[in-house]
Predict the structure of Macrolide export ATP-binding/permease protein MacB.
Amino acid sequence: MLSCRSVHKVYATDRGPVDAVRGVDLEVAAGRYAALIGRSGSGKSSLMAMVGGLARPTSGTILVDGIDIWSLGDSAMARFRSRRIGYVFQFQSLLPTLRAIDNVALPALLDRSRSRGDVYPRALELLREVGLGDHHDAFPSEMSAGEQRRTVIARALINEPALLLADEPTADLDEQTEREILALLTGVNRDRSTTLVLVTHNLALAGAAEQVVHIADGAVVP
Ligand SMILES: Nc1ncnc2c1ncn2[C@@H]1O[C@H](COP(=O)(O)OP(=O)(O)OP(=O)(O)O)[C@@H](O)[C@H]1O
Ligand SMILES: [Mg+2]
């Protein structure tokens, strides 16, 4: 499902180049739950951004579902991201002027082949699955942080992605909510065979993963 080969990321900064990711080789099989752990600044988010098609690697190859994603043109990449990858990131936000259900429906409505009549019932079903059936017409400002995160998860699932990427999705939430969000993500992995790559600082959460990948100084620790 996911294959990283010799992936590097160098950021140009005023202080000179920063080697954030230094030759990562990584394989995650389809349907797996992999946890990425490592100290702050070790390069986890940089790697996730490249895997998710959001930041171009300085060098190396990333295959998702057998496709060399960084060889795609802009519009093919946008389509691939929207159809195949779901994102749940820490400070990712909902569109403030849209109700929960509209936020969830939006990525599917961008796909012209799908109609509102098909998308909205599915969006409502997903909101129910994440425990927000009663909040479907709430605006983000009317929801708690945990409710907003659950809405982000529902939104990430509307296009039935093959790969779900979660970068510290619970870092700013209390422990109970953290467990609930994690149960949601691992439930998606189990019930839909969606490949899940999760970045976490929480070793207990990482311990439940089928594959634990340690990152240190921009590389995978063998
Ligand atoms: N846009 C950027 N420009 C310059 N340097 C960056 C940029 N993003 C990250 N870095 C640097 O790259 C390194 C890796 O950062 P990254 O955010 O990938 O780490 P991380 O493992 O996700 O850390 P955390 O656990 O704190 O989220 C750090 O030294 C960071 O300062
Ligand atoms: Mg990070």
The mean pLDDT is 93. The chain is about 35% helix and 25% strand. The two ends are 21 Å apart (CA to CA).
